[in-house]
């Protein structure tokens, strides 16, 4: 049942009202059940959100700066403790890095094609399309622009 508080729902267990906290960050789902008061659930969610907010914020400017200094996606990924795919995606989004294939992928996505349609049209896998696509609004937090 909804509680009016984002990410907190209530449920009945053994005739006792309890609360469940849900938080999704970067496609990872965190859930904890069994809170006996709404206030304790809210406090836990705020603490969890604050903890993970710091770890998921990506400062795109720092990544771009590192890449421009090193000219290496691999070195940039190592420096920022990220995967090469994520670094590449941020660089594509920021307009610093592109390949003919990434340009094609993003043009097709921008014109309304789905990921699956782009993959079929270019004869590549959906994973390749996802790796070469720029971040879409609301999909990821890539820091301040």
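^ structure tokens above, recovered residues below v
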């Amino acid at each position: 049942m909804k509680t009016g508080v984002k990410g907190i729902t209530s449920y009945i267990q053994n005739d006792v009202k309890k609360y469940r906290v849900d938080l999704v960050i970067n496609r990872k789902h965190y859930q904890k059940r069994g809170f006996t008061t709404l206030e304790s659930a809210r406090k836990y969610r705020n603490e969890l959100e604050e903890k993970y907010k710091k770890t998921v914020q990506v400062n795109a400017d720092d990544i771009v700066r590192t890449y421009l200094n090193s000219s290496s996606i691999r070195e940039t990924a190592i420096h920022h403790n990220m995967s090469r795919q994520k670094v590449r995606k941020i660089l594509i989004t920021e307009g610093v890095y592109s390949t003919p294939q990434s340009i094609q992928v993003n043009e097709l996505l921008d014109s309304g094609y789905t990921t699956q349609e782009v993959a079929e049209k270019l004869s590549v896998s959906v994973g390749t399309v996802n790796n070469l696509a720029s971040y879409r609004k609301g999909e990821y937090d890539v820091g301040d622009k």
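The longest helix spans residues 38-56.
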